[in-house]
């Protein structure tokens, strides 16, 4: 009997080995991780393999993960995650509704699966939580808050929400009555965007048994349910917010509605951009845990991307952390804690780690903000690079061993004079405590003590200390910004400019932030050298900061504008200035009317460092400057006679770069010692971007006509000749990868096609090769289904866009080739005011734009356009390309304005032929809308993001043709004037 029991026990213990075969050596956690990468159909098949695999494949957490990866939009929970996935798979109802009792198997046990099952079904009402050790205050004055808490430590505040209507109306039942059919965003660590109608979410909350339940975390709740914004107001002590200077559409997400059931919550994190936050609880109870900046919680791992500094965090769910990691902590290593009660507001300072666990169903509202206390930290966090981001979050654990020894040595002697240059960087990965649960509690606790001691002794959350870890070699105008930044580099420059103008009393602080984020001090020093060399007045205090949102530092002074070319690195910059100078020369030679509507060029040159000192070489675009020759920049031979870095050399440079991994990015993009520059006469008036909301419809129509006229003048301007007869010769000389004809998959090898058009078509073909990669990288709101169809939509041979035909035995091309501006946007158009002055009762219209906006008592009547700026993106190509920024950015997709523009433009976008007239018909190559859509898809900028943001209805578009007709359909009605 005893032997029989032992044999039976052995068989029970042996089930895992027999059922998993060669997989038996893998831990259960790894098997679950592998299953998470499979499709639902693969999981269903794998469940039939063995009893143990059946258990793994029927876990609800696995099906929850599969569901959230698949869904992208509205979600309805069907009682279990497996049933929900089967609905999403569009299986017949009889397969979904058939629910056999789950199979049971003995002889298999898994501590990992048991712990996860326990977390899914545990309740928190039996757990004991004390009040915690976060200070509680009531009737706190703004001065006391700034002095004792802001930027220093968290605090729980009572009474701030006592007068809010939300204090009584934000309950689940009342919200369900009023907003049951309103869809709110769901927060989950998934690539897609998930939303649920509130009534569906409440139904889910009542029946779910998830370890980390779905959680309403909606930053657009004010747009989805505007009435909710009337139910609360921002407490006075938190109302200083520097992001307020931005238009609502330009502001990063800053407020959230938060609703979640028991066990839900926010896992360990630091708020985006090192902003501060307040969170007011309206019903339920929340448990908070917080650590000061730089002290990474046990169980959390921080990773920093080597290229752009984006910070990713691996962390257990909040419930798992409290159950599995919190008990391991010694008393001195435990976080600051508190239980938040209804009506209380907690303040979380900049950079503090925090984790939240809902002890019961909760409703709350939270907002992040930037004020004078955290402004410099926010600017630092935006700056390109990697090391400073890791140090801000992980403290000195972000450094490798050698760097850590150096910093400890330097600090022991002179902490105040420690310099980042003393560090030796060997790796770019933040190394912190591992998130894997370990049975060796003593080892984890020892590492936690080491982390705590390192933070306590050496780490200083001080802006001067943290700024030492900035990568000074990176140029902040050309280096990629982190995709995790709450705003992009253009928005950052706009924000700083508006703060500079709008908050003159805080310019010392704003300047410090600008130096951290955009190297403002470096560029001001360069500007000073240029002004001194050309005998120009040094910028005053109002003029110290670069203006505009472009990627080059531009300074607007009283009479002059100085532009320093840095975008894309030295090679891109020198081609940008060279092409612009060639264009100005061509403009003067033919005395084009366009000359009256562009700024006068006063000087141009190259600023460079030589033997530690700054030097300036004047350069008019002709010949190769000595300093450029030393940089091994060799322009294409035989492209032109006068301008070695002119527009055709630039086109060949762009052709080499387009879609070619072999050529890669600009090899000299990191150069920080040579900068071309241009000085022009300052235009009077204001940019269109500043006037958009105050202009009359008549003013906007006049602008559309003006742009049509000036683009007509631009496209009629003779472009320089290209003396290269065969593009293949250039490819062979450069040893380019397409010299052997590999790109003929997309471009026909027609030697009778002019080389100018060959460059155009082959550049497009190269861009097509990586178009899916780029669109997937840009992601939402571009639909995945459209990305999958994009290569089929684009031409297989881009020469077909030229509509080649024969006439009198010769090849002809219907498309015109011309100069194109490429970047006519709302900040590149200047407008002057017109006034009505009264004299003896007689009204007369006058233009006083030269008076810098002062109308001498006249009544402001209207604005008229007068200048087009910024020709550094000049190119030669299809004129349709110029319609993209005009229609999408200036006109914001208004077809009426596009039609008005075309009525003034009057040039053919597709030439007529003697045989069959203009091309219309059903052939897609005869649709101007198709040409424009192809250029949008292949554009180096995220034009599609602008399209789907302007036409929100297109986010459900089924085809590119639908997008094309909605955006560019008006073009098909245009015949031009032959």
From TrEMBL:
Q: Report the superkingdom from the record.
A: Eukaryota
The record's subcellular locations are: Nucleus
Cofactor dependence is on: Fe(2+)
Under the heading Gene3D superfamilies, the entry gives: 1.20.1280.50, Cupin (2.60.120.650)
Record family assignment: Belongs to the JARID1 histone demethylase family.
Keywords, A to Z? Iron, Metal-binding, Nucleus, Oxidoreductase
Please report the stretch or stretches of sequence annotated as the F-box domain.
20-66
Q: Which GO terms describe its cellular component?
A: cytoplasm; nucleus
Q: Origin organism of this chain?
A: Herrania umbratica
- Protein name, entry field: F-box protein At1g78280
Among SMART domains, the record links this protein to:
FBOX (SM00256), JmjC (SM00558)
Using the record's annotation, list all stretches that form the JmjC domain: 223-386
- Its main subcellular localisation, reduced to a broad class, is nucleus
Named from the GO MF annotations, one term is:
metal ion binding
